[in-house]
Amino acid sequence: MFAASSSSASAAVSVARRFAAARVAAALSPSAVSRTVVSASHRTLATAAATSTHTPPSSRAASGLGDPANQHGQLKPAHATAAAPAGFGFDLTQRPVGSPDEIASPTHSSASDRPIYLDYQATTPTDPRVVQTMLPYFSTLFGNPHSRTHAYGWESEAAVDRAREQVATLIGADPKEIIFTSGATESNNLAIKGVARFYRRARGKNHIITTQTEHKCVLDSCRVLQEDGFEVTYLPVQQDGRVRLEDVEAAIRPETAIVSVMTVNNEIGVIQPIKEIGEICRKHKVHFHTDAAQAVGKIPLDVNAFNIDLMSISGHKVYGPKGIGALYVRRRPRVRLEPLISGGGQERGLRSGTVPTPLVVGLGEACKIAANEMAKDSQHVNALSQRLIQGITSRLTHVARNGSEQHTYPGCVNLSFAYVEGESLLMALKDVALSSGSACTSASLEPSYVLRALGAEDDMAHSSIRFGIGRFTTEEEVDAVADKVVDAVTRLREMSPLWEMVQEGIDLKTIEWSGH
To answer: Disulfide engineering: 291 pairs with which of 206, 207, 262, 382, CB 3.0-4.6 Å?
Structure first.
């Protein structure tokens, strides 16, 4: 009797979990599903066929979602609904507050006082389709994905599993290799500190290699480890911002635990030779980590083809929500980490804490969209990047692009305007959202450490502006910004005595300035 009861209970749980997964699919997909309902109060099983009620194709076309003619900045996602299954008291046809029916382009506003947004390296607007996918998990599908005894938990778990697969697909990984975190900063900390501490304890490895132009969270993680007794090699970069491969290989020692080199630089957009670095690390059996926050979803990445052991991902840099990220951790050959957070042992024991289902679902959807639309986004961004650069440099002299022009992500354009202070230029361009350097460090009046690592003079480093172009940027916005930049630089230079001297043919480097 006991065996039979146990078997029935197992069957009930199995069927209920299948129902939960199907219910999640119904909320996200227009296909009809067959739902199996568990009645916990009567401990019986009943199967009920229910058809999802979704926006018909004609309505979807009218809304602009899935319409090939729909242009960037004009997304009008349809609102998908699902019939409520019997026995759970949910009504997915009830529209949540803040439904994205009214959402158009995230960066456009009817309010005339909103600045033009060209700061896509600081953050990207959340794609309306991502918002739409997330909404049910704030209201009806609110279960804890770690609750294993009821359907609320099972349906959330199914949604998390789906998102994990979507993230993995984008980078060529196995879903089991994806660890959800709060963002790229946590992922970088976990990767570098986790690997370094584990392999020092297990194998006596106490050496780390990185570059001078990494994101602050990587550099600061390395400095913390230095204070803890680790040795860190900070590799210089060339004038174009790329690290020399021979420098990477020469720095590797028997006690090297990890090499960390970012994929795309957040200030200048330079793409590092990640594939070649991965080959070097694999040859020397050293773990290779890359901060790919600015690269995932924008350029093709394959963790296996590039021999990457750990990869950091950020949700809000790929048109997903803030507060969510991921760390890819290779399973074969296995990479071991010492966790930073103690607790319930979620995420393979590497990152304890309840997984935030709505944010995870948003990240998964953002990665799915990126995988499907990367080529289109790349073409769009590249065209606007060239248009912006041409619109500025054809009318202004003494403008320098920072970083490699050949090995770069076109959506990040860093320009220095000689004889103009970057902060003054930003103030003159108050109706354009721009940055002078990284948003994480631009509060400092010190010149960009990234540009100084490239060998830029302080005056050129101080005069740099970063233009970030993305999925929702339009030609009209780029043209307007180019006009505004040309006007502002021209006015500021007219007020500069240095510019006047240059116009008179005086070489400023030959002048001996008196001290005060």
So the answer is: 262
Q: Which of 217, 281, 412, 440 is catalytic?
A: 440
Per residue in 170-216, pLDDT tens?
Answer: 999 999 999 999 999 999 999 999 999 999 999 999 999 999 999 99
CA proximity to 163, closest of 35, 32, 24: 24
- Rounded Cα distance between 4 and 85, Å, is 28
Rama region for 419: left / alpha / beta (φ>0; ψ in -120 to 50; rest)? left
Domain final position from 95, 127, 149: 95
Least reliable range by pLDDT among 38-47, 261-270, 447-456: 38-47
pTM attached to this predicted model: 0.79
Q: Percent of the chain at pLDDT above 90? A: 67
Q: Count Cα atoms within 13 angstroms, Cβ side, for 59.
A: 11
The pairing of beta strand 464-468 with beta strand 412-417 = antiparallel
Can you say whether the dihedral through the CA atoms of 389, 392, 395, 401 is positive or negative? negative
Q: In whole angstroms, what separates CA 150 from the centre of its chain? A: 33
Which of 95, 118, 134 is the last residue in one of the domains? Answer: 95
What 8-state DSSP symbol labels residue 471?
Answer: T
Contact 363, 320 (CB under 8 A): yes
Reported as type and span, the H/E element at residue 211 is strand 207-211
Task: Tell whether the model's pLDDT for residue 316 goes beyond 70.
Answer: yes
Question: Is residue 488 domain-shared with residue 441, that is, in the same domain?
Answer: yes
Q: Say what the pLDDT of residue 124 is.
A: 98
Compute CA distances 48 → 27, 165, 300, whole Å. 17, 28, 43
367 is catalytic: no
Q: Strand pairing partners for 412? A: 468
How many Cβ atoms from other residues are within 10 Å of residue 70's Cβ?
14
At 204, is the secondary structure helix, strand, or coil? Answer: coil
Q: Which amino acid is present at 321?
A: P
Statement to judge: residues 324 and 423 lie in one domain: no
CB 163 within 8 A of CB 310: no
For position 356, which CATH number holds? 3.40.640.10
pLDDT tens-place string over residues 119-140: 999 999 999 999 999 999 999 9
Q: Which helix (H) or strand (E) holds 194?
A: helix 184-203
Q: Angle 282-288-291 (CA atoms, 0-180°, nearest 5)?
A: 150
The Cα 501–Cα 443 span in angstroms is: 31
Q: Do 173 and 304 have their domain in common?
A: yes
pLDDT class of 511 with cuts at 50, 70, 90: low
Other beta carbons within 10 angstroms of residue 305's beta carbon come to 11
Q: Is residue 142 part of a domain?
A: no
- Give yes or no for a contact between 315 and 366, defined as CB atoms under 8 angstroms apart: yes
In a domain, 45, yes or no: yes
Question: Does residue 446 sit within a domain?
Answer: yes
Residue predicted with more confidence, 86 or 145: 145
Domain count along the chain: 3
* Pair (360, 381) in one structural domain: no
Residue span of the structural domain in which 403 resides: 373-510
Residue 303 lies in a domain: yes
